[in-house]
Write a structure and sequence with these properties.
alpha+beta, HlyD family secretion protein
């Protein structure tokens, strides 16, 4: 067996036979060609997309969903009697949210109404006195007429007595009596005139008192109206349809005027605030169409329109604007907020939440022609004047 195994284990070099040539591999060239073909196809595809579409888009990922929220704050102070809504609850315009104890405000309203009743009674008394004063004026005028008649008779008697005395047919005592009666009649007439003036002056005083009382009545009516208004502010209502968030009040809490109790996010009032670089603003105008991608909704593309551009960059409106005139200067690209209205239905409005991140791309080919109407910023929903909904404050 050892003899037969030896020839099988012998190498070609030992036997003197020539070695076979190695086979050249073709896998690497094929892979290289495949990679080059895929790269060329991808490059052609992306280049075509850029030439046909991408070069007209101005995009940024510094964009966020926002809304004009209302901060719910009381106008009066007091203890919270009840909280009628829960966190994240949907509410409709006019729904009661928080009720403040009304005990003190009920008393203030009753006190104002009592003062009004007292002042009305005082005015009625003054008006009655004025009627009496008018009667006194009438009496004084009647007395003056009587005094005039007495004076006329006294003058006639004096004339006859004087004629008789001058002719010697009458006694001097009759002339003296006639003279005295004439003087008395004149004095009574003067007294009647004075009584008339006094009565009329009394009427003027009463008129002034009535006018003053009516002014006081007006002030008390304003106090009553204020008490009624304060009582109405005891119930805070929703200014519009929305969702309650950041609820920070519980029954029994003492709240002061202006304290933040909750936020109302409008149900359909969301929009996008996109912060574009200053180098991207050249072709962005109001009215252009926008493609929107929300990070929380992957794979879903929304559409919208540019509504307006901020009148200044974000740094100008910051709490501490930079002052480039001090220290060493380093140029930083500024960003300008751009307001974008989102086209969405009711079902999408339920998914969009203020604060969500977004990526937007403005299609500059859709810029409106000169003279075309451009979209105007929407006015945030406001509370009805008849509904005491606290102090709505627009906030971001």
């Amino acid at each position: 067996m050892s003899d037969s195994a030896a020839p099988a284990s012998a190498t070609p070099a030992a036997t003197g036979a020539p070695a076979p040539k190695k086979r050249r591999s073709v896998i690497k060239p094929i892979l290289l060609l495949a990679v080059l073909a895929a790269g060329g196809t991808a490059g052609f595809h992306y280049g075509r997309e850029y030439w046909l579409d991408g070069r007209f888009l101005v995009s940024t990922d510094d964009a966020y969903v926002a809304a004009d929220m209302t901060i719910l704050s009381p106008k009066i102070s007091g203890y919270v009697d009840a909280v009628l809504v829960s966190e994240n609850a949907r509410v409709r315009a006019g729904d009661a949210l928080v009720r403040i104890d009304t005990g003190d405000y009920d008393l203030a309203l009753r006190q104002a109404e009592a003062k009004l009743d007292t002042e009305r009674a005082a005015i009625a008394s003054l008006q009655a006195q004025r009627k009496a004063a008018d009667a006194q004026v009438g009496e004084a005028e009647a007395n003056r007429q009587a005094a005039n008649a007495t004076l006329d008779q006294a003058q006639l008697d004096y004339g006859r007595a004087a004629s008789l005395a001058k002719s010697g047919a009458g006694a001097k005592s009759q002339l003296d009596q006639a003279t005295s009666a004439l003087q008395t009649a004149r004095a009574k007439l003067a007294g009647a005139e004075a009584a008339i003036a006094s009565a009329k002056a009394n009427v003027g005083v009463l008129d002034a008192q009535v006018g003053e009382a009516r002014n006081v009545l007006g002030e008390l009516e304003l106090a009553r109206d204020k008490a009624t208004r304060d009582l109405g502010f005891a119930v805070l209502t929703a200014p519009y349809d929305g969702i309650v968030g950041n609820l920070a009040v519980q029954p029994g809490d003492f709240v002061s005027a202006g304290k933040r109790l909750a936020a109302i996010v409008p149900a359909n009032g969301v929009f996008i605030d996109a912060n574009f670089k200053e180098t991207q603003l050249q072709h962005i105008v109001a009215g252009e169409e926008v493609r929107i991608e929300i990070d929380a909704l992957p794979g879903r593309e929304l559409t919208g329109k540019v509504v307006s551009l901020s009148p200044a960059s974000g740094s100008v409106f910051s709490l501490l604007p930079p002052d480039n005139a001090t220290g060493n200067f380093t140029k930083v690209v500024q960003r300008v907020p751009v307001r974008i209205a989102v086209d969405h239905g009711p079902e999408m409005a339920q998914l969009l939440r203020p604060g969500l991140s977004a990526t937007v791309a403005v299609d500059t080919r859709t810029a409106p022609l000169p003279g075309e109407a451009q979209p105007q910023p929407e006015t945030p929903p406001a509370a009805s004047p008849s509904e005491p909904a606290g102090i709505p404050v627009a906030a971001r």
